[in-house]
Structure to design on (158 residues):
């Protein structure tokens, strides 16, 4: 029997270029149709809010947020499959929400596969609501999968 991974304190930091290979590896272990190394590089170059979560100097997850025109969009939030259900996804989401507040955005959006019940549970817990469906949004084995669109209205800062 494999012993469960012990929860160890983690910290959030800014993603840097040297993280891209590790982040790409986490992405490939997590998805059948992962983002490429170049997409992560382009997100950094575009100035998106890119963060990683580390535990014992090991990147175990990442989040990418785009902010423009008073809105934010969570483009990617992922935790390595070996480290899921330890709170790292919530830690990353909290950081993306904090960054959105600092940017004074009115609303934050994201897409999620309807089959990803764990992620949906976290988004609902954090005050997101399902507002729409995007047909055939995600590539999937044997075709396409819809995306559930979620949003969260941010608190007014004024």
């Amino acid at each position: 029997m494999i012993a469960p991974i012990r929860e160890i304190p983690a910290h959030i930091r800014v993603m840097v270029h040297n993280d891209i290979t590790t982040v790409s590896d986490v992405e490939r272990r997590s998805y059948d149709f992962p983002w490429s190394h170049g997409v992560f590089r382009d997100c950094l170059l575009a100035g998106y809010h890119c963060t990683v979560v580390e535990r014992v100097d090991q990147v175990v997850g990442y989040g990418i947020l785009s902010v423009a025109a008073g809105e934010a969009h969570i483009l990617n939030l992922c935790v390595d499959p070996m480290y899921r259900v330890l709170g790292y996804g919530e830690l990353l989401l909290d950081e993306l929400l904090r960054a959105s507040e600092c940017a004074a955005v009115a609303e934050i959006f994201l897409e999620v596969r309807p089959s990803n019940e764990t992620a949906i549970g976290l988004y609902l817990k954090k005050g997101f609501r399902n507002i729409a469906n995007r047909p055939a949004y995600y590539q999937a084995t044997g075709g396409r999968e819809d995306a559930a669109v979620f949003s969260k209205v941010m608190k007014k800062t004024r």
Remarks:
- Residues 52 and 62 are 4 Å apart (CA to CA).
